[in-house]
Amino acid sequence: xxxxxxxxxxxxxxxxxxxxxxxxxxxxxxxxxxxxxxxxxxxxxxxxxxxxxxxxxxxxxxxxxxxxxxxxxxxxxxxxxxxxxxxxxxxxxxxxxxxxxxxxxxxxxxxxxxxxxxxxxxxxxxxxxxxxxxxxxxxxxxxxxxxxxxxxxxxxxxxxxxxxxxxxxxxxxxxxxxx
Length: 179
Ligand SMILES: [Zn+2]
Hints:
This protein is α+β, with helices and mostly antiparallel strands. It has 3 helices and 5 strands; from the N terminus they run E-E-E-E-E-H-H-H. Strands 2-1-5 form a 3-stranded antiparallel β-sheet, with no helix packed on it. The radius of gyration is 26 Å and the shape is elongated. The structure holds zinc ion (ZN). Zinc ion binds near residues 12 and 17.
């Protein structure tokens, strides 16, 4: 099986100019009975001098996770994603994948932010659960009942506002990345 595609910057052996292409480290040729070629054994056409040859030198490669976003297993920071997206936009301005930016192609949110969301959800669930149990099973005065009721509403509203802000921040980031 081929390894994930990545952007590869190659240096032409004839004129030493560089260009970007999209290729895989391993193309999966070997199991099909063909020889697996390394980058310097593959033929590329240089956009500068027009020569088609092998012997290209790899200058840099985008991380494997770039085209795999969003991925639980290969998370990527927004900063790093934006860096590679700038290169992708610059060298592949007509690539159809660009229309997916911010839709189904975006870095997976940072674990820190995800954790914050989980904590908030636990607070919401916990508050609702505790208040329900107390209201149902404890003999309370009307005043205490009212206090508990309004206090829990306040906590839930606060969590709701924070979660909304959080969602807005995330979508803002995605639009920023898309623009
Ligand atoms: Zn060249």
